[in-house]
Amino acid sequence: MANRCDYFESTEWDDRRWRAASEWSLDEFTAFAAEDLRDELVVAVSSASQPQPVDLSNFTVGDVWPQETPVAGWTREDVLAAWDDREVTPDPPDTCPHEPTEGDRCVFHGDADDETVRSAVHEAITSETRTDRILSGGTFPSLDFQFERVVAPDTHPLVLSYATIKEFNLHSATVAQGLNLRYARLTGDVSFHNTTFERFLALRGAMFEAGFDANEATVGGRLEAARLRAEADVVITRATLEGSVDFDHASLREANFFGTRFTDETSFDGAELTEGTFKTAIFDGILSFEEVTADNISFARARFDRMATFSGSKLTGEFDLVGATFDRRVLCDEIQANVVLFADATVESLSLDEVTVDDQINLAAATVGELRASDVTTQTLTLMAGTLHGGRLEVPDDDGFTCNLTEATLGDVSFEGPPDMFESFLFRDTVFDGFDFATDAHREALAAVDWEIHETAAAVAEDPIDFETTYLRAKQGADDQGDTAAASEFFIREMRHRRRSSVDALRASPVSITGVLSLYQVVSNATFDALTGYGERPGRVVSLSVGLVVTFGVLYPATGSLARNGDTLQYSADATSALLDSLYFSFVTFSTVDYGNFTLTSSLGRVLAGLEAFLGAFFLALLVYTLGRAVRL
């Protein structure tokens, strides 16, 4: 019998490591061990169906070295040595530290019965010799430490890397040293429910074939779970993860992190999930969730104290961040999803560049400090009842795009896009608080819709009262910015929709006090519009005044009611002279200056002159009013 177990010199050990190493991406392999082989490996994986150039990140070393045949001068043994340098060193040692019990194998690598193996595991944990806790590559039955305190004489970890474990039960246990399960295979249920790991928990590359429950667990050190693979549900709910967390390139079916607290940096870059739930989770450190692929992901009501980045992630279903709170910047660049939900969220800064969302990006009732969005492809962007304090949004040149701003509050936001971009906007009761209507892009867009911001491609059933409020708030926003020209345009439209509201009220109750009041409001509103453009069109007053002067000037000779120096002005005598004298008389009457040597020869003439004098005074007052507003503009 040998003095030491020969398992680490066996082909079985090589095969276990190779199963893990074969999934090493060629891109990572060349970057770590053989950068000079990159070109040769590109040729090796190229084919008629996969011509150059190829992306080495889409291939693994197993694709290049399926057999023992050398490729580019490298054998499988060379690749495995590089893998050991990256993944295995410093454990396990070159030889198994345990004495063989029968043949050339120890109790962990031989054919010992389950009870013998369990007993040996307990002895190894409490051994004064730290290498005794290296159990890499072993085959274990059900390991049950529930409610126990698993503690060794020193801090050296318990190493179960590359091991095969049927079931592992640490329910409500305390593990005082680190636990290394890197590339282990766990074929049965794993329960870390309410377990306290005082140091690290290493699950890198581990395979969980059954359920994994770490509900209410605490990990005092780092949680290393990169490339972890789970064929059943992973439940790490209401857990406390006090160190860094790494799930990069993990493959999870359904992962539930509901209510878990991540106190340090957390990364899920490149992970694959069917369903991922992080509802009410707390991220005290930076979260990196880049290039994740999933069906549905939910961070509903989660809290992010540091920056969070989701860039490059691809979801076939919903990306749910409803009610989440982001105290720092959020990057969602180049994401793909069916629906992105930020409804009721609070976001300090949000970036949405080169985003493709099949259905909608929903920011309803959300509060966003700054939004940066460009090259966005989606059907609907809704900010209904939300608040957008600032930022820049590039509006896609897409007839099917709708931006819903109903009851939203817009601050210092810049919209850029095609000249007719506002045709894709739905403005209803929108509050403009710091919004600049005077930018070139905004002015061009407003002109394209003739300032009729309520008449868009997204218009819904008309309600004049809503439209009146919409223009009122737009006018107030423009006034606050000192943009009196825009305020004037919005005021006119506000008053016109007020008239429409009165018309609707009149139709509803034509024979009533309400109907009478509505009729008065309709008439007065229409008159004010026709005469002065609601005080915003002084040119209209001038034109009407000139028209009245000319009209009365034509009427006096036609009726024979005006005389000069005793001679009645008539067209039959001298039409040109009569018209010119009558126009002069009409002008001085309209302006209430003086009659001069003109006299009125009939009652009709006196009625006409009195009416003209009254209209002249009225229109002069209107002119002063409108000119005053024009000076303000």
Task: Describe what you observe in this structure.
The chain is an alpha/beta fold and 633 residues long. The chain contains 13 helices and 45 strands. The strands form three sheets. It has a 22-stranded parallel sheet that branches. It has a 20-stranded parallel sheet that branches. A three-stranded antiparallel sheet has the order 44-43-45. Helix 9 runs antiparallel to helix 10 and helix 11 packs antiparallel against helix 12. The radius of gyration is 41 Å and the shape is rod-shaped. The termini are far apart. The model has no long low-confidence stretch (mean pLDDT 87).
Please state the CA-atom Rg, rounded to the nearest Å. 41 Å
Can you give the mean pLDDT?
Answer: 87
Low-confidence stretches: none
User: What share of residues are in beta strands?
Assistant: 15-25%
Beginning-to-end CA distance, first to last residue: 104 Å
Using DSSP, what is the number of strands?
A: 45
Largest sheet: 22 strands, parallel
Helix residue percentage:
25-40%
What count of helical segments does DSSP give?
13
In one word, what is the shape?
rod-shaped
Secondary structural class: alpha/beta
SSE diagram, text form:
Layout: H1 11-21, H2 26-32, H3 38-45, H4 61-64, H5 76-88, H6 114-126, E1 139-140, E2 143-144, E3 149-150, E4 158-159, E5 164-165, E6 168-169, E7 174-175, E8 179-180, E9 185-186, E10 190-191, E11 196-197, E12 201-202, E13 207-208, E14 212-213, E15 218-219, E16 223-224, E17 229-230, E18 234-235, E19 240-241, E20 245-246, E21 251-256, E22 261-262, E23 266-267, E24 272-277, E25 282-283, E26 287-288, E27 293-298, E28 303-304, E29 308-309, E30 314-315, E31 318-320, E32 325-331, E33 336-341, E34 346-353, E35 356-362, E36 367-374, E37 380-382, E38 387-394, E39 402-404, E40 409-416, E41 425-426, E42 431-432, H7 440-448, H8 464-480, H9 484-508, H10 513-532, H11 538-559, E43 562-564, E44 567-568, H12 571-590, E45 598-600, H13 603-632
Parallel strand pairs: 1-5, 2-6, 3-7, 4-8, 5-9, 6-10, 7-11, 8-12, 9-13, 10-14, 11-15, 12-16, 13-17, 14-18, 15-19, 16-20, 17-21, 18-21, 19-22, 20-23, 21-24, 22-25, 23-26, 24-27, 25-28, 26-29, 27-30, 27-31, 28-32, 29-32, 31-33, 32-34, 33-35, 34-36, 35-37, 36-38, 37-39, 38-40, 39-41, 40-42
Antiparallel strand pairs: 43-44, 43-45
Helix pairs in contact: 1-5, 8-9, 9-10, 11-12, 11-13
